[in-house]
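Lab meeting, item 3. Inverse folding demo.
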């Protein structure tokens, strides 16, 4: 079988980092109200996709565990701060 030479396609796709940077810059130029709307719409789409995912229960469990870890970290920060304010911190 003869080797096939690669085709030259005139379409060039940008690097994903370039696309992300452009989207971030567009978002930064929006006023505060439009930013909030954009975030809300993105959240709605993400939740819609999650509900329809074959892995929705697994993903929800991962999100719930992440939330529990975040709450534990927050509690620790506040407890450490309170200890340092009360003078009970011996470190």
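The presenter then showed the designed sequence:
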């Amino acid at each position: 079988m003869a080797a096939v030479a690669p085709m030259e396609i005139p379409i060039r796709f940008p690097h994903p980092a370039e696309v992300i940077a452009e989207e971030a810059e567009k978002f930064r130029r929006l006023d505060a109200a439009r930013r909030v709307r954009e975030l809300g719409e993105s959240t709605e789409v993400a939740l819609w996709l999650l509900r329809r995912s074959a892995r929705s229960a697994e993903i929800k469990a991962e999100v719930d565990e992440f939330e529990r870890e975040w709450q534990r970290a927050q509690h620790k920060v506040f407890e450490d701060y309170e200890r340092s304010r009360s003078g009970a911190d011996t470190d």
